[in-house]
Automatic annotation (TrEMBL), chain A:
This is 2-keto-gluconate dehydrogenase. It comes from Salinicola rhizosphaerae. Keywords: FAD, Flavoprotein, Oxidoreductase. Belongs to the GMC oxidoreductase family. Residues 90-308 form the Glucose-methanol-choline oxidoreductase N-terminal domain.
From TrEMBL, chain B:
It comes from Salinicola rhizosphaerae. Keywords: Signal. NCBIfam families: TAT_signal_seq. This is Tat (Twin-arginine translocation) pathway signal sequence. It comes from the Bacteria.
Length: 526, 189
């Protein structure tokens, strides 16, 4: 893979589009623009670690890839107690969290785009219908699935199931659930010059074989190869600047030497993942935008969603060795439907998960000690596991704010992440624990463990899209209601979280946005 | 990670202390990896008594009856490294002194139940948290623990595709339609 810039742009070149963040949203957008001949400067706070640099040592990989700049937490969610300075487990590296992701690639269901209409007015939730529907995204979902070689789409065969899958499948069969090896952005055959999955089991650690799709091994090298995109690494954007007319003019960022630089821009697109994106807008407050850039409506940072999550681990008499092979090796989709008869709105997926021994010790029951804890670890090679992931309710009190008492290495106020589970989230989690446990019991489990949520891997909703400017931050293309040449290009746009893992949708929206920006630039609208 | 070897009892003792022992389980996974049955871990910040106290304290925190002391010693080694920081050192040596004081001299001389009661009494204290924080990482992030608990780790770039990723034979084989086939260009390694 070639990551050299074929072309560079001057800091005062005001014809470029600045894209902030090189993950699922930013990396895809940068390539989508560069392919149209648009000049792009891609700014990434992390460094470049290409796949041969990746580690198959969980803690080393964690240190290499994770976003470890300080953050703080508040609220009654258990993560705030277990991991007060680690609300989210996401990345700071070229490729963003697509280096980390396990590549489960699902479409949002049509009804989930109309959550407010379908679920009604739930007390304590700020549900809203998306300004776009399934049909708007469908053609881009098609393109995304082709682009990512998603298994079980376009005649691409499924991945062979590992041991963890076999256990889930057995239990699912007994309960009458559907279960297969899922739609995964992992090559089941050699394709696009990337090899097939080796079933090595280090999907969370970067995937050394390159079988797993990431912007690192596709979009970014392709964007650079066009000669229209310059990537700057270790470039931490501190502020988005604007002129008196309220249009953005560029960004100020700290370069790798800690020096402040300014890059002019015709358009700015923010894709820093849903904690950093609102933090950046809030840190860009000015006389004209006293509450933060594009925050006249007051919604920047609000409605933070992280999905209802939890895991079920189960021990069996015979060995399982869950760590062998893909992390998300099987899925049960039956509970993803909306069915009020279960006592909650929205649905959830059950997906296998596996942690190596080092991370299992840290995450299975954080802070725990004594025999109850070690008994589970003693069963390590006999454990099977699933992750429960479902729609969580947006709330205006679940939000990202600036913590002015804590500063990062650049002296910038850090993000505080506040979250309280909604009653609907709790009811769904209890149901999911029950069903997940039943799956494993049916497969013959001897012990069942309900494991609390890990730090957030899905972060959504903090600059949500809305039909009306007063209800959100951006429109159906991610263009902010207030500033026409400022775009939100990551999961922050999600109006509601839906049950599915979000990244396929983030990528599809970025492809759609790239076209939209191209058209608007051509029309001189921006 | 820790590079403490299970080498023979050959070490230069400067100040500090040492943990020495003999493997308890001759046929265990750890014994298979160890070059010798006797092991030794030296410490720079702790004397023998302090090192032994930390080891035993860790056994109370994360009790695995058949896990060798040699693996627990890796936690002591990690704490020893952290204790190069004077504040951490102070906190740990104070914590040990407090345990001894409450035991009228030597916490290690108490029987297991009494030791356990005292560990429970200090649960949540800064001393306890420092030892726990180190132990939860150091105890489980080394090749000896991997072998003991049956974690295969990273193997090599060929992965588990031909090394048992789907070797369960105690459950029915799922149909190909819900699973998938092994890529046929995959040469066994
Ligand atoms: C362990 C794990 C497993 C996952 N598995 C799945 C899965 O199976 N399926 C799925 O759909 N999703 C999965 N996800 C979620 C997926 O990774 C994210 O949804 C997706 O990567 C988000 O894309 P993004 O563009 O919003 O942010 P990211 O991909 O996180 O990229 C954001 C980038 O912006 C950079 N950045 C942030 N702030 C600044 C700044 N101020 N200046 C410059 N750069 C900045 C960051 O360094 C980062 O590289 C998983 C996530 C994790 C952590
Ligand atoms: S299991 Fe497959 S996708 Fe995951 S890291 Fe290994 S080769 Fe990559």
């Amino acid at each position: 893979m070639d990551y050299t810039n074929q072309r560079t742009f001057g800091h005062d070149d005001d014809g470029v589009v600045v894209v902030i963040g090189s993950g699922a949203g930013g990396g895809t957008l940068a390539n989508g623009l560069a392919q149209q001949g648009i000049k792009v400067v891609l700014l990434e706070a992390g460094g470049l670690h290409s796949r041969t640099d990746f580690h198959t040592d969980e803690w080393r990989a964690y240190e290499q890839l994770s976003w470890l700049d300080p953050r703080t937490t508040s609220g009654s969610w258990r993560v705030a107690q277990d991991f007060p300075n680690l609300p989210a487990w996401i990345c700071k590296t070229v490729g963003g969290s697509t280096t980390h992701w396990s590549a489960c690639s699902l479409r949002i269901q049509p009804h989930e785009f109309q959550a407010r209409t379908r679920y009604g007015d739930l007390e304590g939730a700020t549900l809203l219908d998306w300004p776009i529907g399934y049909d708007d995204l469908a053609p881009y979902y098609d393109r995304t699935e082709k682009r990512l070689n998603v298994t079980r789409t376009n005649d691409i065969p499924g991945l062979p199931g590992n041991n963890n899958f076999k256990v889930m499948y057995t239990g699912a069969q007994k309960l009458g659930y559907e279960c297969n090896t899922g739609r995964m952005a992992i090559n089941s055959r050699e394709m696009d010059g990337r090899g097939h999955c080796q079933q090595r089991g280090f999907c969370f650690q970067g995937c050394r074989s390159g079988a797993k799709w990431s912007t690192l091994n596709t979009e970014i090298p392709e964007a650079l190869a066009t000669g229209n995109c310059e990537m700057r690494t270790h470039a931490h954007v501190a502020e988005i600047t604007h002129d008196a007319s309220g249009k953005v003019t560029g960004v100020s960022y700290f370069d790798g030497n800690g020096e402040m630089r300014h890059q002019k821009a015709r358009v700015v697109a923010v894709a820093g993942n849903s904690i950093e994106t609102p933090r950046l807008l809030l840190n860009s407050a000015s006389g004209q935008f006293p509450d933060g850039l594009a925050n006249g409506s007051g919604h920047v940072g609000k409605h933070y969603m992280r999905h209802m999550t939890g895991s079920v681990y189960a021990a069996f008499e015979q060995p399982v060795h869950m760590y062998r092979g893909t992390v998300m090796a099987g899925i049960i989709p039956d509970e993803a439907r909306h069915d009020e008869g279960r006592g909650f709105a929205g649905g959830y997926e059950m997906e296998t998960i596996a942690l190596g021994l080092p991370l299992a010790a840290a995450f299975l029951n954080p802070g725990a000690w004594g025999r109850d804890f070690t008994r589970m670890i003693d069963q390590y090679d006999h454990l099977a596991a699933m992750w429960l992931v479902g729609e969580d309710m947006p709330r205006d009190t679940n939000r990202i704010t600036l913590n002015h008492d804590v500063r990062d290495q650049h002296g910038l106020p850090v993000a505080n992440v506040h979250y309280d589970d909604h009653d609907n989230d709790i009811a769904m989690r209890n149901h999911a624990y029950q069903q997940g446990s039943d799956v494993y019991r049916a497969a013959g489990a001897t012990d069942i463990y309900e494991v609390p949520p890990y730090p957030s891997t899905h972060n959504l909703g903090t600059c949500r899209m809305s039909e009306k400017p007063e209800d959100g931050v951006c429109n159906g293309f991610g263009q902010t209601h207030e500033v026409s040449n400022l775009f939100i290009s990551d999961g922050s746009q999600f109006t509601t979280s839906a049950a599915e893992n979000p990244t396929l949708t983030i990528i599809a929206m970025a492809m759609r946005q790239a076209e939209h920006i191209g058209q608007q630039m051509k029309a001189q609208a921006i | 990670m820790t590079h403490t070897s299970l080498s023979r009892r050959v070490f230069l003792k400067t100040s500090g202390g040492a943990l020495v022992g003999t493997l308890a389980f001759t046929n265990g996974a750890v014994a298979m990896l160890a070059p010798s049955r006797s092991w030794a871990v030296t410490t720079e910040q702790f004397d023998d008594h302090q090192a032994r106290t930390l080891l035993t304290f860790t056994r109370h925190l994360l009790p695995h009856d058949t896990l060798e002391d040699a693996v627990y010693a890796l936690v002591v080694k990690d704490l020893d490294r952290q204790a190069a920081d004077a504040q951490v050192r102070q906190q740990l040596t104070d914590g040990i002194a407090t345990l001894d004081r409450k035991a009228n001299g030597n916490w290690l001389s108490l029987d297991e139940d009494d030791r356990q009661t005292q560990v429970e009494a200090v649960a949540g204290s800064p001393f306890f948290k420092t030892v726990h924080g180190s132990a939860i990482v150091a105890l489980y992030n080394n090749p000896l623990a991997f072998a003991h608990f049956g974690y295969g780790g990273g193997v090599d770039d060929a992965g588990y595709l031909h090394r048992g990723f789907s070797d369960i034979d105690w459950l029915p084989e799922p149909p190909i339609a819900v699973s998938g086939t092994i890529p046929n260009d995959a040469a066994p390694v």
